[in-house]
Design brief:
The structure is a single chain. The protein has 94 residues and is an all-beta fold. It has one domain (22-91): RNA polymerase II/Efflux pump adaptor protein, barrel-sandwich hybrid domain (OB fold (Dihydrolipoamide Acetyltransferase, E2P)). It has strands at 22-23, 30-31, 36-39, 45-47, 51-53, 59-61, 65-75, 81-91. A hairpin with a 5-residue loop joins strand 5 and strand 6.
Length: 94
């Protein structure tokens, strides 16, 4: 028998899983239908032409084409003008 009581292990020493957020296809790259362009929390980048938003704010391509990022001035409800980032997928010219 041990003379001293064994110490317990410390809890919560494991880390959470990585989320793998960020831009997956950069400006000028080719996107296929359904390919993920940006994984994000919230709408830091907005969906433009031929891009749709998933329920976790993931942006994905609706058609095949070239990825383009742009900035656009938007007027907020209080009249303040801010720059918002948009991503578009420009379809291939046939």
């Amino acid at each position: 028998m041990a003379e001293t009581k064994s110490a317990g292990t410390a809890g919560s020493l494991h880390d959470s899983n990585a989320q793998y957020l960020g831009v997956k296809l950069s400006d000028g790259q080719q996107a296929k239908t359904g390919s993920i362009i940006v994984r994000q929390r919230g709408t830091k980048i907005m969906a433009g032409q031929n891009v749709d938003t998933g329920k976790d704010h993931t942006l994905f391509a609706q058609t095949e084409g070239t990825v383009r990022f742009r900035e656009k001035n938007r007027t907020r409800y209080d009249g303040k003008t801010i720059k918002k980032k948009f991503v578009d997928v420009l379809p291939q010219k046939a």
